[in-house]
Design a protein that fits this description.
Strand order of the largest sheet: 1-2-3
Order of helices and strands: HHHHHHHEEEHHHHH
Shape: globular
CATH superfamily of the largest domain: Intergrase catalytic core
CATH topology of the largest domain: hpI Integrase, Chain A
Number of strands: 3
Largest sheet: 3 strands, antiparallel
Helix content: 55-70%
Amino acid sequence: MKEYIKKFLSYLKYEKNSSEHTIKNYGMDLSQFSEYLGDKKIDDISPLDIRGFIVYLSEKGEKKTSISRKISALRSFFKYLLKERIIKLNPAESVPLPKLDKPLPKFLTITEVNELLEEKEKDKDNFTKIRDDAILELLYATGIRISELVSLNLEDINFKEQLIRVKGKGKKERIVPFGDIAKAKVKEYLRNREEKRPKTSAVFINRFGKRLSQRYIQMMLKKHLLVKGLTKDITPHSLRHSFATHLLSMGADLRTIQELLGHASLNTTQRYTHLNLKQLIDEYNKVKPR
């Protein structure tokens, strides 16, 4: 089975243009399934084996979201094998995905965002601070994912039109505008970046002149939240949720938000309407009459 997994991952990379994140996760999920099966041949795998795998994962205490992703990986894998005529039937086709709880996305209020992005002191010589301020400002101003932010290259930014070209999931490109404050902060950062004489076209670089990692941005945001005294459990993705929630509350329509976020389905964007409704109810409960 390991050889088939290797071919499938190569297919995802070169033919489907799947993201590195997807390929890595699918590889781990399929390897786990292979270990669970032992020496069982690919032709002998049945829906019962997959259901048994789900029970095994549940007993291990795996989350529903994790189990759902693993089933999706198996479905894609066996669909590929069927297409390549390696198997005659897809054993994962009839296996249902577990029903997932859909918690509302966490976000910051406009006041909290202003507090997070507010500059307490100005240090023109601090490359790290100038870069990190530009990163946070751009994340909130555009609503892009951190994977999309670290993938940005210099040629993806159009300062004249105040637009960035974003390479999203499945290598799909979209154009996203940004405001004056983000423009000023990114320009200031790029002037400092030039002094490092980097050999990469990556917009955001580390002190060694190499492309910044997603992990760094996650850790940096945690540090900023602590310094600003914001105790909410917030991630870089929460800035994306904040961007969408604030756009909706200020009158932007769902189709526009869908385009800006790069959502394939409007259903994904619609959860922000539920979030807005929750806000409305919370505010009502604070001041409601008898």
